[in-house]
Design a protein that fits this description.
Layout: H1 3-26, E1 36-39, E2 44-47, E3 53-55, H2 70-76, H3 110-127, H4 131-150, H5 154-169, H6 178-192, H7 199-205, H8 210-223, H9 237-243, H10 248-263, H11 272-286, H12 293-300, H13 304-324
Antiparallel strand pairs: 1-2, 2-3
Helix pairs in contact: 4-5, 4-6, 5-6, 6-8, 10-11, 10-13, 11-12, 11-13
Function: Stabilizes TBP binding to an archaeal box-A promoter. Also responsible for recruiting RNA polymerase II to the pre-initiation complex (DNA-TBP-TFIIB).
Keywords: Initiation factor, Metal-binding, Protein biosynthesis, Repeat, Transcription, Transcription regulation, Zinc, Zinc-finger
Family: Belongs to the TFIIB family.
Length: about 325
């Protein structure tokens, strides 16, 4: 190709790009100068002032299917699963299915089954290349197990996974067990999300004791500079009321009792779980609903003595608040 031809081709391309840039910058109706809008339903570009159709038969780059809710959208989507911090590889690696069948649903022969089993073994080895990934895989599996047992939502699991990853990257694990740091991360994430669980509840589903949990938890939040507010007794009320099958009126009364105790300065220095359990029991008495101290104790994992002492204080504070008003 000669220099003249190259020069001519370059000039033509430059003129074309300049024209397209000028058209994009103007973006106005050629008739009246009005604003152009895209009509995605009919695949046209029209002027909203005079109605002139400037472009038609536009290409729709969206999906060809329609969905009317999130579940239907997820079932029809043909893309892969979203990335997640709950998996050690962020969900980006491949996985060989456990079914010993081919693409047509036919069973594999014994020789092919043995081959697939070897492939699964090597695939699992390649997914965890070093000790750090093996550590992360074990910890995230532990977090998912405990979160399922405690009924915690997915956002809490994601937050706990991020906290554990930070602890691992900052070398906070030497001298501490994987289970201890994973449990502490989950406990901190639950409190950050406003869906706290008591230390006794977390210890029941964990593989460590309460003392190790509290020690590791304090160390993690101090080293990672996590800002975690003290647990609010009102955040436990909906769960306790639901487990005891109490009415909305009883739940509202329990919240009112706790608010009165807060105004009277009774919440400081007391267990939020015990206060919430006492408020639920007192609210059940006030609304004539059936909830014994033993039932509340089982749900909240708090002794009956604590419930008896706290609910009397809550009722006295409510009486004082009512009299002052």
């Amino acid at each position: 190709m000669s220099d003249t031809t190259i020069r001519t081709y370059t000039e033509e391309m430059t003129e074309t790009e300049a024209e397209s840039t000028e058209q994009e910058s103007v973006r106005g109706c050629p008739e009246c100068g009005g604003r152009l809008v895209d009509d995605s339903e009919h695949g046209e570009t029209v002027c909203e002032d005079c109605g002139l159709v400037v472009e038609e038969d536009a290409v729709d780059r969206g999906p060809e299917w329609r969905a009317f809710d999130s579940a239907e959208k997820d079932s029809k989507s043909r893309v892969g699963a979203p990335t997640t911090n709950m998996m050690h590889d962020n969900g980006l690696s491949t996985n060989i299915g456990w079914q010993d069948k081919d693409a047509y649903g036919n069973s594999l022969s014994s020789r092919q089954r043995a081959k697939m089993q070897r492939l699964r073994t090597w695939n699992e080895r390649f997914r965890t290349r070093d000790s750090k990934e093996r550590n992360l895989k074990q910890a995230l599996g532990e977090i998912d197990r405990m979160a399922s047992a405690l009924g915690l939502p997915e956002n809490v699991r994601e937050t706990a996974s991020v906290i554990y990853r930070r602890a691992l990257n900052e070398d906070l694990l030497p001298g501490r067990s994987i289970e201890g740091v994973a449990t502490s991360a989950l406990y901190a994430a639950a409190r950050q999300a406003g869906t706290p669980r008591s230390l006794d509840e977390v210890t029941m589903v964990s593989r460590i004791d309460k003392m190790e949990l509290t020690r590791t938890y304090r160390y993690i939040i101090r080293q990672l500079n996590l800002e975690i507010k003290p647990a609010d007794p009102e955040s436990y009320v909906p769960r306790f009321a639901s487990d005891l099958d109490l009415s909305d009126e009883a739940e509202r009364r329990a919240r009112h009792l706790l608010q009165g105790a807060r105004e009277a300065g009774l919440l400081s220095g007391k267990s939020p779980v015990g206060l919430a359990a006492a408020a639920i029991y007192a609210a059940a008495l006030l609304t004539n609903e059936k909830a014994t101290q033993s039932q509340v104790s089982d749900v909240a994992s708090i002794s009956e003595v604590t419930i008896r002492n706290r609910y009397k204080e809550l009722l006295e504070a409510a009486d004082v608040t009512t009299a002052s008003n």
